Amino acid sequence: AVGALAPSLPLQEDFVYHWKAITHYYIETSDDKAPVTDTNIPSHLDQMLGILLQEEREREFGVTGPCMEYLLHHKILETLYTLGKADCPPGMKQQVLVFYTKLLGRIQQPLLPHINVHRPVQKLIRLCGEVLATPTENEEIQFLCIVCAKLKQNPYLVNFFLENKLKSLASKGTADVISEDSLSGQDSLSADTGQPCQPEELSGAVGLGHTELEDGPPQQTDELSTSLDNLAVTPLPEATVVRPNQDYNLVNSLLNLTRSPDGRIAVKACEGLMLLVSLPEPAAAKCLTQSTCLCELLTDRLASLYKALPQSVDPLDIETVEAVNWGLDSYSHKEDASAFPGKRALISFLSWFDYCDQLIKEAQKTAAVALAKAVHERFFIGVMEPQLMQTSEMGILTSTALLHRIVRQVTSDVLLQEMVFFILGEQREPETLADISRHPLRHRLIEHCDHISDEISIMTLRMFEHLLQKPNEHILYNLVLRNLEERNYTEYKPVCPEDKDVVENGLIAGAVDLEEDPLFTDISPDNTLSNQEWLSSSPPATPDHPKNDGKTEVHKIVNSFLCLVPDEAKSSYHVEGTGYDTYLRDAHRQFRDYCAICLRWEWPGSPKALEKCNLEATFFEGHFLKVLFDRMGRILDQPYDVNLQVTSVLSRLSLFSHPHIHEYLLDPYVNLASGCRSLFSVIVRVVGDLMVRIQRIPDFTPKLLLVRKRLLGLEPEGPIIDHITLLEGVIVLEEFCKELAAIAFVKYHASSTP
What we know:
5 strands
């Protein structure tokens, strides 16, 4: 009853009582082998924390109470660090880590700016991750993450955690630390370098200086100092990690913990690094990339995970394995119904690539560039390029499938830029036939689009198709636009007004005449259609440019494409749901998506004026379009799957809103310069070839219809039809022409509506 009525001790007395109870343990105890959990130390530390929290609650925000003053003034955190480092009694390191974590996490007022907080925090950081799989790993990562969270709240505080280490003479083998500690006249090499601690420093740290000794015998200080002095034992063996000139120990400790065998610890360490790279402080970003092993960690792990992939992974599995998030890399082979050999390794690689991508996306700008360049040099060039350049078909297929997968997966603009430079090079001047192999990887990949192996061709074309959908201006410029800049595919013919619509001998001026077309010189006169027949199956072609902007009337373009394939080679109108309107809907949606990508590239609204173009320069469509046009020209002799992929890439290209791309790929009426070909002229030539070959195939139209129905699954598979490749090619050709017509229509209307 008396105890209940007695006034509670003032908080400060209570606080000092608990701290002295801890210090007395070290003076009085001879058995330092008993675990800390058998002592009252954890309870006293909890009480101290509770008192500090209560004190803060009872005061206005920002006012430091006497207990907190006592903790700061008497360097209690320094002493606790020393006890934790020595791990005396066993388990003390864990208790100290928990105390620091709770103190930083629960106290509202900013503590880290205080030298007697950030200095011991910095020292404790160095103890984290020294040894992997220690019993304190969980507490270590919690402590590091709370420090990261505090830095995220106040990024300028990170400067307290950057230490400049100057290499001293190699004979000494030690380092002098020049940090803000030494600027304050403090000795920062006290207890963290394995050197013996000075007794006077520790007696001050414990708060038992001469001013406080009225209540204890004089020899107490010496006893405590001696007992603490003995704790400066040799440090634990460090995990192997290079410590460069400037230390960013917070990063180094997190990097060590990313190697933890415990997946949860590793993920938390990755989260901590994610917070640190995003800090806007330039000094921290520089230190992060130049003085820590972060770049090496990212790239070396990417490389080792890539190399661990079995060569035999099915490209289809690489493409279809579910989306991977780096923090959720918890794959169980036993639980997976769709498991395949190498799936575990593939998911590990893709999830680490996702982590690198997200880290670079979040990182401060200069740090992001440095990290992405490291991935480019150490992983893309160092590891992936030799795989992509090999000659083994199996190896080419697997490595291209992996490249395709990471092209699809990358979301960071900075990493995408490096990936684009890796694949395509940085060249922006027009290509010439002589220098198409200037960037060897680009040359090899484009050549693979026309590989003897259909699988390699399709996979590489798919990779380029996805690359073209990425929000990076250099991709389209490097592959196509740089060769169209001068519009030297055109021949400049000023149109006389009186020539318009003049009909000579029943033909419209400028009509397509196959016999005079330089592309058709190889067709013998007996096989060509007469001009009359040709005109009956295609719209009247006039060099009619009613508008000043050089755009041909849209209905003429649409009809040109729709009427390219002769009626006897058309089969879609016999089958429901394969009309032109389906393509219109798709084209509208896709064009909208492409416009969103291209908006920030500030393309001109109309083509460069011909008077300003260098039309004399020799035109070369570029390696990429050359290969696509060559393949398009063989559409009647190639497998169906290859044709679908070639036409898919060409339709993607034609969706771009740049006026030169539109003119070159979608305007049938452009006056082509001698020896130049456009997409339309390539298709015209294919149609000419087709009309010759149709004559030789009996029952052509019924066979064509049967093949179409089989492709659509409307007819069961039956006996093999002869000329199947040609028939499937005709169907792809007809659909492709409808698709191009729809794209031209949608683009025209988008440009004419405000």
